[in-house]
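If you are new to this repository, start here. Below is one unmodified record pulled from the training split, so you can see the exact layout before writing a loader.
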Amino acid sequence: MKRKEFIKITALSGGYLAATGTSGAVSHSASSRSDLTAALLQQFLTSHVQLKSDTVDRIIIGNPDTVVNKIGTCWMSEWETCRKAVDSGVNVLITHEPTFYTHRDLDEVPEFLQKWPDYTKEQYMSQIQKKKKWINDNGLVIIRNHDTLDALQDKGIPFALGQFLGFRNSDIIASRTYYNVYKFKKQTASSFATALAGKLREIGQPGVAFYGDPSREVASVGVGTGWICDPMDFADLNPDVFIAIDDVVRTHIQTVFAADTGHPLIVINHGVSEEMGMRSLNQIIKQKYPDIETIHFNQGCTYDWITG
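And here is the target side for that same chain:
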């Protein structure tokens, strides 16, 4: 299935994710529709964990005083997804990743382009201005929720992925902020990788990249947030299998180490690793604001798999 065909508007059912507790900071009281603004929604979204002063979790673009009519959630606020949001009546879109091609969005424009050739700078700046104008012209507010969801206990990125893969919190045998190690029944690494690939196909990834010894017996796996999953950072937690994303792993470092040592490493797409976390956030918002329609834009794997 092509990724563009896979992206569709989905109103998620409340039972999609395994029910777990939330951190103490999460409010369970339902709120009604009474004049909720984008600014108030943002305050709720960042109330779940203690954030650093330089957090990227904020309103990226749009009027903070905009009254929320309909909420959308997505992993990446690509222009195609922004168009789908506007077409469906969404006026506040919550995204996990940047809208304007750099981690700190407009705060880093144009500084982040300085090291590139002038032609590249002009291309990116032109596209940023076009996208920015379109968003403003359509009255869309985009809120970033990244640092909060990465660190959120029980329903954040690593927990949501673990739950999707069939693990429970009671399966966690080692943990650090952003990272969990889950236990499972002993099996070969190739058997585990095959089962993982079958599950991730549901989020649009056609297969996984495997490095290491496929015949090695394994009984635990390390799962982190999208970006915070480098096996080199969490080796001391000693999972039998590492899962890492394509944006982090380098083919001349971690993969060669896995091949030389036999220690299994499975590489998956960044969007796939965090899709379930955004669906979890969608449910948190629905629970808080039951009178405001909230939909999710499925994205999952961020590339099309083309074979010869």
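Two things worth knowing about this chain: DSSP finds ten helices and twelve strands in the chain. The mean pLDDT is 90.
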